[in-house]
Specification:
By secondary structure, the protein is an all-beta fold. The protein is 0% helix and 66% strand. It contains no helices and five strands. It has a five-stranded antiparallel beta sheet, with no helix packed on it. A hairpin with a 5-residue loop joins β4 and β5. The chain is globular. The chain starts with 8 loop residues before the first strand and ends with a strand.
Length: 74
């Protein structure tokens, strides 16, 4: 989406080893510019939730902490 908001959905096409997979993610939590959490709505996993936490470093850079909770396909 042009604007990232809670509830917005993103459609992605992911390619790996010559195969592609369509995935739809929904933004479930957003606290710009520090936090973005999204969950899979449609895709290969039973569950997929990813959390992106951005913190400023003393040198003016950005540190990204990336956490994933998932359940593999059945």
């Amino acid at each position: 989406p042009a604007t990232m908001i809670v509830g917005a959905e993103l459609e992605l096409k992911i390619g790996l080893y010559g195969m592609s997979q369509h995935v739809r993610l929904r933004i479930v939590d957003l606290d710009e510019p520090r936090l973005l959490v999204d969950e899979q709505v449609k895709g290969p996993f039973q569950k997929w939730r990813q959390r992106h936490l951005f913190t400023r470093t003393p040198d003016g850079g950005t540190h990204l902490t990336y956490e994933v909770e998932f359940e593999p396909p059945k």
